[in-house]
Amino acid sequence: MTEKKLKLTGGTVDSVVIRFVGDSGDGMQLTGTQFSDTSAMMGNDIATFPNYPSEIRAPQGSIYGVSGFQVQIGHATVHTPGDEVDVLVAMNPAALKTNLSSVPVGKTIIVDTDSFNKKNLQKAEYDENPLLTGELNNFVVIEAPITTLTRESIADIGLDNKAMTRSKNMFALGMVFWMFSRPLKYTETFIDKKFAGKTQLIEANKRALRAGFNFAETIELISSAYTILPAKMDPGIYRIISGNTATAWGFLAASEKSGRPIFLGSYPITPATEILQELTAKKYFGAKTFQAEDEIAGISTAIGASFSGHLAITTTSGPGLALKGEAIGLAVMTELPIVIVDVQRAGPSTGLPTKPEQSDLLQAMYGRHGESPVIVVAAKSPADCFNMAFEASRLAMEHMTPVILLTDGYIANGSEPWKIKKTEDLPIIYPNDLKSSREEWMPYKRDPETLAREWVLPGTPGFEHRVGGLEKKDGTGDVNQSPENHQLMVKLRAEKICRVKNNIPLMQVDGAQEGDLLVIGWGGTYGSLFTAVNHLFESGQKIGLMHFSYLNPMPKNTEEILKKFKKFIICELNMGQLHTVMNSKFPEYDYFKFNKVQGLPFTVLELTQKFEQILNNQ
Amino acid sequence: MSEQTNPVLTFKDFQSDQEVRWCPGCDDYIILRAMLKALPEMGRKKEDFVFVSGIGCSSRFPYYVGTYGIHGIHGRAAAIATGVKLANPELSVWVMTGDGDAMAIGGNHFIHLIRRNINIKIVMFNNEIYGLTKGQFSPTSLIGQKTYTSPYGNIQPPFNPGQLTIGSSGKYFARVPGNDPKMMEELFVKAEKFKGTASIEVLQNCVIFNDGAFEEITNKETESENQIRIEHGKKMIFGKNKDKGLILKGFKLEVVNIGENGITEDDILVHDAHEADPTLHLMLVRLQNPVVMGEIRRIEETSYDEVYVERMESVAKKSPFKNLDEMFFSGDTYVVE
Fold first, then answer.
1. Could you tell me which of A222, A613, B19, B275 has the fewest CB atoms within 10 Å of its CB?
2. Are residues A35 and A163 in the same domain?
3. pLDDT digit string (tens) for B17-36?
């Protein structure tokens, strides 16, 4: 929540939210990334949220082709990309139209006046030019002919009109850099690298960047720049990381700490594809990746690789998880370790493929035929994807079971500073390898504590055995369809998952440890929930946050925590899936629920209002 | 994998302790027997074999072989086997499947495995019927065939497994009658040596739901007239008296009688299984009378798994980082004090 209002005259502020919006081909993602990276380098905490359309290059100027990138930078630690926009950079009328509602009165809007021509206004469904009607009178509007100025600044380089126009994002970035007293050097270095060998493009982009910077200073539309002091963060070495990259790196770390090479069988799907790309690019660490012919082949190859002894992974989104359901059942029956990553997106069906939602929880928990329990975990922020990918791998291999890791488009594409972990500081993973002698070993002989069977790989002489989807006899693993054995095996498989609770951390509550209201959430909503809860807690309310990273099984102390609060509210970006789970697991408590399914994250404001309402018995 | 001489294994070493449960009289018993005899001849260790299957009568096969094995889910054997093989390229991986498992529900995985040319052997038990679900038509059932789901006669044109294999850029296709254990045994051993995806079609009689489907082709009385068994480098001659052969007339294969109309043995085509151009191989797999048996196509090229391993090694040599930590701390990092 952005409490501190920005003064139009600038000055020092605690945090600020900036949103860059334009056509999907305007380079807004790159512009936003450059601004956030530069800010992080200067010691600010950041949280970003790219919001882009599912069309790659929608018709220019159209409303559905608008692509945006939002970043919150802060002097204090920031947990979300922010609710309300302090500075909106709108490269065309459609961008203004679709984003104006996020900008509170009094805030700043920078527009490229060159793009407010008849054609673009029509495409944005404006009857009249909003720059002329007075409808923006309550905002600080900075009108700049960005396209013309960009072209003029680079006219002598020898690029054609189209190529010149492409540098306009750098001009806009330069303006914003000046407003927030950011140095240009990081982006200049970036330009050198990105366009290495293309001297004209390097020159054009650098010049446009500087021209924008100088223009902002010259026109003095903003009397002085805003300053945001560095954030108070844990000392250490940081880097900016996106959720999907963090997921891939978490797997690399798990591979190293378990001694098991990675095999990732996957089929490209938005918004999960970057994990496959990242691990493929990092092949030199021994990660085997395989782009399969479909989702089912993705998981099936992973199951085969698991049988051969690899840390087996498949990555997907909701529609793909549905396709993989039968194969997950096979991994449950054969008791082979495998990690299934579901980067959730809004559904059903193709739904809103680039927008986040948390609506796959029940699918992850129960979306298979038969009694088919698996471990379900979720990441709560971009950097936390590293931790949970590592945890998912650890639990899969130590307990010989499929694990579903839920992230979402919001944290997968968003980024934040990650305090880099050294591999030596990560725990060792102990896959449940062959321990028994040839005489006592059986394919389904179980560890007395975890109930995990031993992982014996082809190539091991004397231990040849068959696994498969038909029900197995307890112990020997022979095909067996007797009634008593089936019931026993169903119970054993459930009990095996249940005992995982002995191998996961206890739940930690943020804010009040006991009191009036316990907010309950899971996964990628952590940043918004924490910010809202913390705000009320610091203002003296007895409010706490119980946020689940481990959903099945849940931490052992879950009920102990519930006992310490009077009221409960479960907040989710779905229609109440964790609510259903909590009602079935802990039915003696009454839960309020707060749900949103707009393909957008929670805003801190709407959460705070809801919590206050409950705290005040309204 | 050590380089020591492998111990001499026998048929018995490869038997599993499980009771075989196919219908009495099923050709599957003959295929199993042929495989158990072929395995010791392949000169590999028992623990290095993995049999992978999907669903169907044929897919019970892995339970009956005393090696490593996975009985998977319907249609996915080719994909599961791909994972087994890429994770450990040293293994000898076999997919045991049927016409429905491989070409209906698993059609996508089947064609892509073949396209990639991964060193995996596919043995397709083609009985032109669904057996385990009790008598529905399959993708190889004939037009007009009466089954429980085509009581008035099947109207779906069938796949020809050889044509589908070659159409998927297949490098290896062989066909064998399900009542000839000797030929099967030899073929399995030969296929194991092939570096790439081998697609083997077994004409397998289902005694319950499609009995006699291949009767005219495989009957001992008529087989020599209705089958032609071909070998690379040899003339394509058949018939009880070895007096018939294949020639190319225009763009079609033609059966001729040697000694008639001035045709001599010199006119008969020599089989070239190694010819990369698939034109003649396609004609051979499509030939109805006689039906062609043996290794019809065998093109040795680099297999996907070989390239995969090479790529892993060459990329690893070029790694810009010594270890993970070095990557974590590389590039744009910054210090917070």
1. B19
2. yes
3. 999 999 999 999 999 999 99
